[in-house]
Design goal:
The protein has 1 helix and 19 strands. It has one helix spanning 201-207; strands at residues 7-8, 13-15, 21-23, 44-47, 54-61, 69-71, 74-83, 87-89, 92-101, 105-107, 111-121, 127-128, 137-141, 146-148, 156-163, 169-172, 178-185, 188-191, 195-198. It has a 16-stranded parallel β-sheet that branches. A 3-stranded parallel β-sheet has the order 6-8-10, with no helix packed on it. The relative contact order is 0.19.
Length: 215
């Protein structure tokens, strides 16, 4: 790691290549665009899918817990998404103030998730973009936002986590988990024990073209 990042945790963390986790002084990283988390919709939608692009207050996925709820793709503005089922995100941009993941998340094309408040993992064994390309999932954290596994183990993530804000936090607690990709932030990273971050030449090539702004 480089810069002034606070990296904490117990046990051994394997960084297969320097740069998998990095921190720069606030201001050294490009700002997110748009600069502020945008407004979202109102009301509550309880749905088993599909979910079209648009503005929503709260979305609660429902139905058979093993049934995947499909988001068709495009641009979304969501206050709270309670993903009680596996969710599949079509290619697009997802502004989600609070994302509570109780099941797996997969993508079918390049997806950017912009988090205003928090992305929380609420069960063990949850995966984000498992088996996919690191280029297809980017999680951007706004000022004060956090990405946390809430102590749940067997979590896995493939993609990039990015934040230019010194008050953002990324916390991977639980044992063990593989991260395929990179974490680039001006905030803090808390890494749990016996976990690995894979950042080989293939992954570097996949994420080299990612941006921190809306396409």
């Amino acid at each position: 790691t480089t810069g002034t990042n606070n990296v904490t945790g117990s046990g051994t963390t394997s960084l297969q290549q320097t740069g998998a986790t990095s921190n720069a002084n606030a201001g050294a990283l490009p700002a997110l665009s748009p600069a502020n988390f945008p407004g979202v919709g109102t009301g509550t939608l309880n749905t088993s899918g599909p979910v079209a692009a648009g503005s929503y207050g709260t979305i609660n996925t429902s139905g058979n817990r093993n049934s995947t709820v499909v988001f068709s793709g495009g641009t979304y503005y969501i206050g709270t998404l309670n993903a009680n089922n596996p969710i599949q995100l079509g290619a697009g941009t997802y502004f989600i103030n609070t994302l509570n993941l109780n099941a797996n998340l997969t993508v079918t094309g390049p997806v950017q998730i912009f988090v205003g408040n928090s992305l929380g993992i609420n069960n063990r064994g949850i995966s984000l973009n498992s088996g996919g390309s690191a280029a297809d999932l980017q999680v951007n954290l706004y000022s004060g936002a956090q990405f946390t596994t809430n102590g749940h183990d067997r979590f896995s993530f493939t993609g990039l986590i990015y934040s230019p804000y010194s008050n953002s936090t990324v916390t991977f607690s639980g044992d063990p988990y593989p991260i395929t990709g990179a974490i680039i932030t001006a905030g803090s990273i808390n890494v749990g024990r016996r976990s690995s971050i894979i950042f080989d030449a293939t992954v570097q090539s996949q994420i080299s073209s990612l941006a921190c702004s809306v396409p």
